[in-house]
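--- STAGE predict ---
source: upstream dedup step, 1 unique chain passed
mode: sequence only
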Amino acid sequence: MSELSTSLAHHLLVALPSLTDPTFARSVALICQHDDNGAMGVLVNQPSEYTLGEVLAQMEIPTDDSRLRGQVVLNGGPVHPERGFVIHDDARSWDSSLAVGEGVYLTTSRDILEAMARGEGPRNALVTLGCAGWSEGQLENELSDNSWLTVPADADLLFSTPLEQRWQGAASRIGVDLFRLTDYSGNV
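--- STAGE serialize ---
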């Protein structure tokens, strides 16, 4: 983090229109960990082809909650797409949990999914498959190349804003209208 004075953990990365990589175009990533070794985050606005019901069934975790079964699982990123990540607002001691920031946690263990299936899980939770990773200095280089905006994380945006509104919604938190920006080729 030599070019960056503070960690970007508990911040959102908002892809600028110039970022055309199909994996990250128009994406919003919650940075969960950022230090001298690199960064790890989870995309929070890209639906996958799976529902939580399908994931729970594959893991042999039963639930009678039809709303939970219908919840969209997000595409969290290209790294470890077979692995589940749960972003939530519950401070209980779940196995394999990381405090991302005030009131936001990342958990990778089965116990949280079992609790959710029983109706005893976090009040708010996003389930993703996969994550995004940046090697040492990579995120700083992408920031200096103007690929991303950084925005403080916001629980309302993470848990209440509809997926299709998160990209512009995150940018608007700092006064940016992404639809008024042009990419480097002059396209809107």
